[in-house]
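Narrative of activities, Objective 1.

The group set out to show that a structural description can be obtained from nothing but a protein's sequence at a throughput compatible with the screening campaign. Below is one input-output pair from the validation batch, recorded exactly as produced.
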Amino acid sequence: MTLPMEMRHLLPKSACIAALVTSTALTAQSLPDDPVIDLRAGTQVRAMGNGTNFDAHPPFLSEDQAARSFADFRLRGWINVGEQRLGGYGAYAQVQIGSLALGDDREFGKTHGTPGDAIGTELRRGFLWLMPDEDTILKLGVQGWHDAFGERPSENFADELWAVDDYDSMRAPLANSVWDFNLGGVSLAGNGQEWDYRLGAFLLSDGNNTFSGHGGSVLATGDLDLERSGSRWGASLYYLRDNGDYSYGTFGGPGAVYDSSEDLWFGVRGHLGEADHWGSFFLIYNQGRTNGPDWNHRGVAARIATGFDALSGRAEIQGLFATGDDGSSATRSNEFRTIAQSARDDFGAQGYWSLLGLTSPRGSSDGADLGVSLQNQGYGLATIQASWARSLTERVDGVLAAGWLQSAEPHASNGSRDLGFEVLGEVNWRLRDHLQLDFGLAYLFTGDFYRAAAGGSPENLYEVFLRVQFEF
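Output recorded for this entry:
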């Protein structure tokens, strides 16, 4: 058996595993009907520095924001042991030493102070996988999941078996696997000549191991896409039944303890054109209700985007809208809600849906942000954003981005819809084949949406960021 080049980078302990696997493969040479085991591994290691004048996800901002800075470190490592010759099957596991502040031995407040979340090492994902043919995959266990309303997906849905993340989900707006939306359950996905599908059933609540009764929070998912003449058209249906206090513990919603809830999302989408000039859209309808107290909501969200060559670089423009509500009614709302509602997603699902980096996360600057999402604390969102990227040298790229952001409904505390106007500049420098340095600056001309009821107009915000990352 030939081991991948990446194996040379493994820690010494992995050499024992590699030797065992090699021995198994050599034995299999004399037993052609026996399985041939393949071992692959990889890692992602990063160190980050960040300087800002705001804390993560503040509901309000002051006229004089205090400066803060931090540096942290994160290591992820994955291993995939599988049989490739007799019909693919195997096991994938990924562990993470969380975003540690330098000088600390426990993870920083990823969920903003929630008790029990300060950890050193965790299992990020771990699942069994079976590929009865090259176009079908079944997974059972803790796995990443994302909605299908992000980028146009690649044709190879099994890429996630050989990487830290499925990067096709970067722009997913409802729940994002790259942003640690990891669930226990079962999923089935398949690719046909024209039709692709994804089906899943998952448990949501931490510590939950039941599909019914108190504590049972279940997500059922279905995606169907048609590829034809260079275009891709799709529809999705997601259903979340919650008996475990998962869905409405965050901003928006009834704002009270509830007995149970259920939510439904149905949406359509399209991707037109190829890499040099493309367009895409989605339209999603969401409705839900809680029992005890009785409360219901209905909302919609939409996106339209395009990408094209411009000025020796690549330009992208997107507009997004989601309905919101000012909270004036105690029993009904027009707000659109996202699937991810953990304490880390306290204003609605977080992730890399945006072209910006201060109002919402960006890969190189995701240590601090305002938590803006389609849900946006229940007030909804209207935003127009643009970015332009080009190569500066063979190994250096530059990115410029800007965006205007408003809430769909005025804030109940100050009557304002204006979140602000953000500008961003970033440099990406590929130091080596698997080693990259990213640095940049984001600045927000802050709107009065963040003004406290008794305060003045909030100060403008800044974020200076730097990240060095090794990944293979």
